[in-house]
Amino acid sequence: MDITEYMHTIGRQARGASRAMARADSATRNRALLLIADAIERDAATLVEANARDLAAARDNGLAPALLDRLALSDKAIATMVEGLRQIVALPDPIGEISNMKFRPSGIQVGQMRVPLGVIGIIYEARPNVTVDAAGLCIKSGNAAILRGGSEAIHCNRALALLVAEGLKGAGLPEHGVQVVDTVDRAAVGALITMPEYVDVIVPRGGKGLIARLMEESTVPMIKHLDGICHVYIDAKADVAKALPIAMNAKTHRYGTCNTMETLLVARAIAPTILPQLAQLYATKEVELRADPEALAILQGYPHLTAATEEDWRTEYLAPILAIKIVDGIDAAIEHINTWSSKHTDAIVTEDYSDALRFLREVDSASVMVNASTRFADGFEYGLGAEIGISNDKLHARGPVGLEGLTSLKYVVFGHGEVRQ
């Protein structure tokens, strides 16, 4: 197979299909999503079997535990995919919506219409659920999609591709509206990110190495985040009954996700009270704590304790490791976060309304939270139905990217025979 020729064929097919996807009405696109959801429920056993083959191969190849966790497709994960598709169906259709209509002195009316981006290329690693999330969001938002999943999930992605094509065809939409790249050759990625004539935007979902490579090589605009160095700051005026479960959940709910806390900041006034209690909780999960000198002194005797270095403040562990730093108060916490955060998700635990508002205003991240776990930074949890990715960029889309993030605005003008004087 000539990979470049193969990818250009996929690109041409996607570009052609994008026109039909854009003009399809909402009922047709929703029908496709419901048919895909029904097909996934019907063939759940087949998907689990395909996923088992992927997992076996991944273990043989020594895939890291965090990636194995992302690769696994449980019954609950399949049910979540189905629920996500049906939730997308229930969302308002953004396409064709006209807003900000205003009369101008000339007599014309000027407004903005929401339209699809066109063809979206999604590149991801070890996450078969992304195949469904991405397909669902692209279909609902009137876009065509080219999906390039990781080689680790090839069997499951092939099975899902058949079900997506079945749903599109059943609704009268082009089967090429969503295409899964059927090769594990890495050259396919290089081709996909250098086809601006066919692809309008790239959404990478994967490790830091993958995204860094794409940032260097892509000639197509991207919606992306590089890594997830997320913080929880426990303020001096925090409610300990809230802070303990939030700090525990943010770190240990899942280790391999981009919204997992990697650094815990604690106000000096509350540190002697709360850190020993947190250490007891983290010990049940054998979490390694990398602490600054003050925290080290408080946590002496904890079985998994080492001294933090500056490198820990900039590290996304994706593992049971947590950096801990004691700070004077909210000013120092905000300064630390804005210096070391990857601008993904950061949270404060406090009962002080003024501190909470300051944190929301001044922390420069895509998601900023008060009294909640960073693990909520997710399109599904935000009510977007699903997400195609998370962006910590400031242009076009920021935070979890749902339907609106996959659309653009164009100006529309209504006249009554006016000519410019």
Q: How is this structure best described in words?
A:
The protein is of the alpha/beta class. It has helices at 3-23, 26-42, 44-60, 65-71, 75-90, 128-140, 154-170, 187-192, 208-217, 240-252, 271-283, 293-298, 310-313, 330-340, 353-362; strands at residues 98-103, 109-116, 119-124, 144-148, 178-180, 201-205, 230-234, 261-267, 288-291, 305-307, 321-327, 345-349, 367-370, 390-391, 399-400, 407-414. Strand 3, helix 6 and strand 4 form a beta-alpha-beta unit. It has 15 helices and 16 strands. Helix content is 43%, strand content 19%. The chain is globular, with a radius of gyration of 23 Å. Strands 10-9-11-8-7-12-13 form a seven-stranded parallel sheet, sandwiched between helices. Strands 5-4-3-6 form a four-stranded parallel sheet, with helices on both faces. Helix 2 (26-42) crosses helix 7. The protein folds into two domains: 3-223 and 401-414, 3-Layer(aba) Sandwich (Aldehyde Dehydrogenase, Chain A, domain 1), CATH 3.40.605; 230-376, 3-Layer(aba) Sandwich (Aldehyde Dehydrogenase, Chain A, domain 2), CATH 3.40.309.10.
- The CATH class label of the largest domain is Alpha Beta
Supply the CATH superfamily name of the largest domain.
Aldehyde Dehydrogenase, Chain A, domain 1
Poorly predicted sequence stretches spanning 5 or more consecutive residues: none
Helix content: 40-55%
Count of helices? 15
User: How many structural domains does the protein architecture include?
Assistant: 2
Architecture (CATH level 2) name of the largest domain: 3-Layer(aba) Sandwich
- How much of the residues is beta strand, in percent? 15-25%
Task: Give the end-to-end Cα distance, rounded to a whole number of Å.
Answer: 59 Å
Total number of beta strands: 16
Kindly report the CATH topology of the largest domain.
Aldehyde Dehydrogenase, Chain A, domain 1
Class based on secondary structure composition and strand pairing: alpha/beta
Q: Within the largest sheet, what's the order of strands?
A: 10-9-11-8-7-12-13
As a whole number of angstroms, the C-alpha radius of gyration is: 23 Å
| Biggest β-sheet strands, sense, barrel | 7 strands, parallel
Mean pLDDT: 94
Shape: globular
